[in-house]
Amino acid sequence: MNKKMMEILACPIDKHFPLEIFELSSKEEVVSDGAIFCPKCSRFYPIVEEIPIMLPDELRDKDQDIEFLKKYKNTLPRKIVSEGLPWHL
């Protein structure tokens, strides 16, 4: 995901802007893996292989999100891993 997209992205649930980004793997202006976080509703959205997965709760894959959290539990902030919505560890 190009970092400049953060200038236009809003939370699909509550339309909050701006969102926070946590880069786990990146090169120059592209985030390969990471997470986008909405401070208003505490939802996180994974960035996997440069693609931000910003779906409403009912369309999200819980198993995929839990696997993402387990994989990055030591590098993502506590507010995502332990308290984030729609689910957390």
What are its keywords?
alpha+beta; 2 helices
Polypeptide structure, described:
The protein has 89 residues and is of the alpha+beta class. The chain has one domain (3-81). The protein has 2 helices and 4 strands; from the N terminus they run ββββαα. The chain has helices at residues 62-71, 78-81; strands at 20-27, 30-37, 44-48, 51-52. Strands 1-2-3-4 form a 4-stranded antiparallel β-sheet, with no helix packed on it. Strand 2 (30-37) and strand 3 (44-48) form a beta hairpin. It is globular and about 30 Å long. The mean pLDDT is 96.
Question: What is this entry, summarized?
Answer:
This protein is α+β, with helices and mostly antiparallel strands and 89 residues long. The mean pLDDT is 96. It has helices at residues 62-71, 78-81, and strands at 20-27, 30-37, 44-48, 51-52.
